[in-house]
Design brief:
The protein is of the alpha+beta class. 23% of the residues lie in helices and 32% in strands. The protein has a single domain, classed as Aminopeptidase (3-Layer(aba) Sandwich). It starts with a strand and ends in a 6-residue tail after the last helix.
């Protein structure tokens, strides 16, 4: 398996992967709606030794809105692995490579709405503990944050707002 940047020739395979990995095509529609429409953006695929796309991860800009202004961060999601390739380290490799790519792009903070038992291994912590929330103020164990640069969360508080496409499609928890 190798992890690489998504290319235009991968679009159909990524759409098929997302449609197969989730119960609806909401995630596929989100990726189609946000792909290439913001910067920076990190979109990676995992490719099998047979050159089949078996995993995908996307990071897009999000805003952290508070009474004192707007801060920028990256949102992880969706992330998917073909059902037959799950539990083989593909997702972990995608998350690790994606966080590294975000760091290399100069990003300092990444947020995810995901499984609270999965993402802490990559340094994600409950976002509410840092004063961040999504949609409704209050604790949400599935909403987590990761500092790519120590101290980057200092002074960041408020509501995290995803691109409009995320609100139009009801995505699953990653």
């Amino acid at each position: 398996m190798r992890i690489r940047s998504e290319s235009p020739r991968d679009r159909h395979a990524v759409r098929d992967l997302l449609s197969r990995a989730f119960p609806t095509d909401a995630e596929a529609r989100i990726v189609d709606a946000v792909r290439g429409r913001s910067a920076p953006q990190v979109s990676l695929v995992a490719e099998s030794s047979a050159c089949e796309v078996i995993g995908h991860i996307l990071f897009t800009p999000v805003e952290i809105r508070s009474g004192s202004g707007v801060a920028k961060a990256m949102g992880l999601g969706p992330m998917a692995v073909l059902p037959g390739a799950q539990r083989q380290g593909v997702g972990s490799a995608l998350v690790s490579e994606g966080l590294s790519a975000c760091r290399a792009a100069g990003e300092h903070v990444v947020l995810v709405l995901g499984h609270p038992d999965y993402y802490p291994r990559f340094g994600f912590l409950p976002a509410w503990n840092s004063g961040l929330y999504y949609a409704t103020p209050g604790p949400n164990p599935a909403f987590m944050v990761c500092e790519l640069v120590p101290g980057a969360l200092r002074g960041m508080r408020g509501e995290v707002v995803y691109p409009e496409a995320f609100g139009r499609h009801e995505a699953s928890v990653q």
